[in-house]
Write a structure and sequence with these properties.
The protein is of the alpha+beta class. The protein contains 13 helices and 11 strands. The longest helix is centred in the middle third of the chain and has 34 residues.
Length: 458
Amino acid sequence: MATVTKENIGLLHEKLTVKLEKTDYLPSFEKALKEYSKKANIPGFRKGMVPAGLIKKMYGTSLFTDEVLKTVDKELIGYLQNDKLDIFAQPLPLESDFKQLDVNNPSDYTFEFEVGMKPEFTLPDLAKAKTTRYVVTVTDEMVNNEVDRLQNRYGNMKDEETVTTEENVLNVNFVEANADGSEAEGGIKKDNSILVKYFAEGFRKNWMGKKAGDAETVQLLSAFDEKEREWIIGDLGLDKEDSAAAERYFTITITKVGLLEKRELNEDFFNQLYPNQDVKTEQDFRDKVKTEIQNYWNSQANNQIHDQVFHQLVDHTQIEFPADFLKKWVKSQGETAKTDEEVEKEFPTFLSQLKWTLISDKIVQDNAIQVNPDEVRAFAKQQLFSYMGGANLSDDQPWVADYVEKMMKDRKYVEDAYNRLQTQKIFEWGATQVKPADKDISAEEFTKMVEEHQHHHH
């Protein structure tokens, strides 16, 4: 009768020894041999009439090995399930001499495996964690800028003969040039649309009185101030981090001159942006804009709380790992085995991700967090609408339902959506556990803080 024994060989690291007697696997091997002889199609013999000795000679070794290993797997899985061993990955076979398997001399066999045990651990008390809810102050300037942006976005563009104001919009063609103004061989060419006021203040006068067909050869460094220059450099496909990019020359040719007429602040405009929301006066409109800006920054602040929750959980949860086993497991993954050096290099990142996986799994299990198919469907629909530019689409259109059902049949998509929704619920749960202190902050300070945090993590 088969036996499985366990022996500790390190921190959360166990050796499992499977001992088979020949009576554990011989009956199934002999049955497999008979089944094979019935199906074998060998020239010179009628189907099902091939002598057992010939079948054993031709296929016995592989069938024998298969049946022995199947029996080992069955015993191993049964042991893990019966003893409720919570292990990482799959058992790794220790050095086993498969030459010991001899179809002509069946005997008792021993196989050894190593397993890494999942650790028990306790999550920190998030209620006692020091956390902050950043409350971004929405200023009149922010409201004015957003109102201005909306007026421009929904305004009307009219053609102009010549450039007369810094508010003129220029449709232009960038062609990379040499310092003398001649076209650079194999250089960059790119169309763009740009307000005169986005050029450097000292350069704007060069455009005054110009019309379609007129051109200026410029060095990016002198034509644009830093913020706009960075945007232009990126749009031209150059590297923003390369200081030499700003020193390049371009001939900028006007293809069209326009002037954007801002949308009037009237009830028609308010109704277009906020239908059926009783926005009638300019003050109503500004209040609505201010609320939307505040909601945006509140959502950003919530993301920041989620980030704090993540760090509290990861930084303050003590988890021990069977490092020796996990390194062997990492080494065995992939089409080709990794070197020890590659494993050591990858291991810290692997361990960090594994730690978060264990923490997430515990939160999900302890709090019965679930994601149901209807939530995945709603997620797919929401994604579709965002792809369509946030258009006010009707939920009940047949093509929308068809798209969602198509996505629900895509296993990879469903798994990805499920994981994203589950992660979102984990952080939403975490946000209910912390007791953050409110702190007023400007939008600039908040943005800088988030950027510095992201830079630190990269």
